[in-house]
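Slide 14.
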Amino acid sequence: MENIIQYSKENEEYFFKRIEELTDKNQFLACIETLESIPKEKRDYRICYELARAYQNFAIIGENEKGTEIELGRELLLTSISILESVREEGENKAKWNMRMAYGYQYLEDKEEFAIPYALHWAELDPSDKDAMAVVEECKQALKNRVKKAVLSKVYEIVVEILKSHKITDSLDYSNRENEELEEIDEEIYLAIKDYAVEEEDILDVIENVLEDLESVNKYKNGGKIMEKITHDFFWRIRLGKGTGR
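Slide 15: predicted structure.
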């Protein structure tokens, strides 16, 4: 890591030029260490903004674009939001401050709705920046995906119980059942989930994934006992493909 640049009012422009150079090289740890070396009582709006930006870049992009572990990234995003809140009075009517608040919440899992008001204000303050409304649309889609994931999780649990009640252990067992019983199972499933807004294709996907998971459970036997853990990887695939950090 490069030597820390000492900040002073006299070398302010050079200091921020070096921070920008480090950012362009994706050396976010050096940015954070350099900015954190400035005593809190000497940090003005610009320093706080750059520090929040560095934390967000490290959380979203990662050092040298290598990514960051999810829990650490979440902690750093919360830190960035806290830093931005400390200069809210000066920043809340600036486009870039609202941009940073929007990104901070957008990349926090299950917090996307908090990003939308900031992105909308960002768009008002800088109508030329199309990224603002793109963030709004991405967050709205994330909310839809979250609702869908919750609904399909409920449907998954219902399907598991129905298939278990018929003592179905895997896909082969399911396909070997008589048509009459399969029709009965389908009727039970559709009756049980009639109050959920689920498309036909999604129901079939859930049934397929439940059968796969039941098969996995059936393989894990130890002393005659079947492990009760059922994977839910299917639901983690129903997520918004978010873009890169900025």
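Speaker note: The longest helix spans residues 131-165.
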